[in-house]
């Protein structure tokens, strides 16, 4: 084995070929079990899925649509079990005309259908267990199973909580709030909670907002008067002419304690309000908690948060407050390979009354504008940002930016009309994540390997190149696993690629998985032993229709539409995924 590691490295799996078809494919010697599909019951006695019978009441008891982030937290809490735990999954958005027979598009739903649609959003928590035969199963009578929806009771915490700009009919104090939606990526904290990112929330709103006092903020967020979905037609909460402050209740990182199904999820305002892809937490050498997060829009920014208090391994109650106090920073890159984190602190520099801020809460509510004023570097759509637990470096997935011009090219965003994205590696000086100065390097520049401007390891195969990095995770050896969203522009399926990040095989990416046509690949997450790999297949069959889907994955039943699902991948006969 030592010899083969020397020859092939730690990722010796047989590479999968590029391709595009109706099926999910994984590298030879691996198997993919469909663990949970849209509509699968999450509770004993919950109704079975039937696309012609779907209703809000049924959907609230079933797995939601368009699974994105996937987190696995071992049971019992604090253990590192790899065969028993809680699976927590985001349901980012829907496309009703792909989901139900005869359904109109998402902006044409009647009130009942809009409510049904709403309940397919949010998150699912479900206990799962690996049986002796190696198959995983849902535990339907588990006390932990939970659906979190856009109507779940939640609370704002931190500096923006109680800000008068947040007051609405549902939130007399600016502290109470309801629900979460547009949940893209996320992270699992060392204290066993889930962070979920509210991303493209503008899509859910409609109505005139010129009397809101928030025009600049809302325009920057992409809000329009047009009703792009149906919730804003039927429910005042999403009609900005009726509830002008509601958009300020979203765009946050929400912390959920999956071990307490009665717990009220918390919107952690100290992490700022923008289109959060996700957030990932790392414990710094001095015990402070550092969270990294990207704002996924063209020319938006990269952020980090450093907690005021320190992590206490034996005091979970205290850790549950860590994301309420601390300092948020935005990133400014220099072309010489250095970078600086600029603190977003009310009263410092341009973040003053003169510029329209009257509290730290205001700075966080207008985070994008505050970062503009500080001179943060506009990026090519920052998606997942995660710390490699083995080498302590930070990896940033930048997915694309069609609007970058020649003049706007810079070190970390080196291409104009960037179609395929790139991956940056950030290194804290002396390994200290709380410092303001880091260095950065380009890990790879994605796109067809022979295209001008791409950059990979010179030994990359015909199938090793990728496009549009989006989500990522690390196995227990610190190898980087990259999930993509957009590779179909090159007539190949999205999927998963893996590479080492140190030594002679650094950035030598290999394809491991292909999604079915239309789908992007989200989630990816390993159990602690790296022997089980959870992958979320989002929007299979996209750009086709319910009547004539381009795939009916995973059921291939003529009465079933394609169904977004989480699969779990294992090595045939067992062993580390990637070996
Ligand atoms: Fe929901 Fe950033 O992709
Ligand atoms: Ca994403
Ligand atoms: Ca991730
Ligand atoms: Ca994406």
Task: Tell me what you see in this structure.
This is dTDP-glucose 4,6-dehydratase. It comes from Lacimicrobium alkaliphilum. Residues 403-412 have a biased composition (Basic and acidic residues). Residues 399-420, 542-579 are annotated as: Disordered. InterPro entries: PhoX (IPR008557), TAT_signal (IPR006311). Helix content is 9%, strand content 29%. With 579 residues, the protein is mainly beta. The protein is built from 9 helices and 29 strands. The strands form 5 sheets. It has a 9-stranded antiparallel beta sheet, with no helix packed on it. It is globular, with a radius of gyration of 22 Å.
- Spatial order of strands in the largest sheet: 14-15-16-17-18-22-21-20-19
**Count of helical stretches:** 9
Hetero groups bound?
MU-OXO-diiron, calcium ion
Q: Which word captures the global form?
A: globular
Strand element count: 29
Q: Tell me the major beta sheet.
A: 9 strands, antiparallel
Note poorly predicted spans. Answer: none
| Average of the residue pLDDT scores | 97
What percent of residues adopt helix (DSSP H or I)?
Answer: under 10%
Radius of gyration: 22 Å
* Distance between the ends: 10 Å
Specify the structural class: mainly beta
Q: Please report which band the strand proportion falls in: under 5%, 5-15%, 15-25%, 25-35%, 35-45% or over 45%.
A: 25-35%
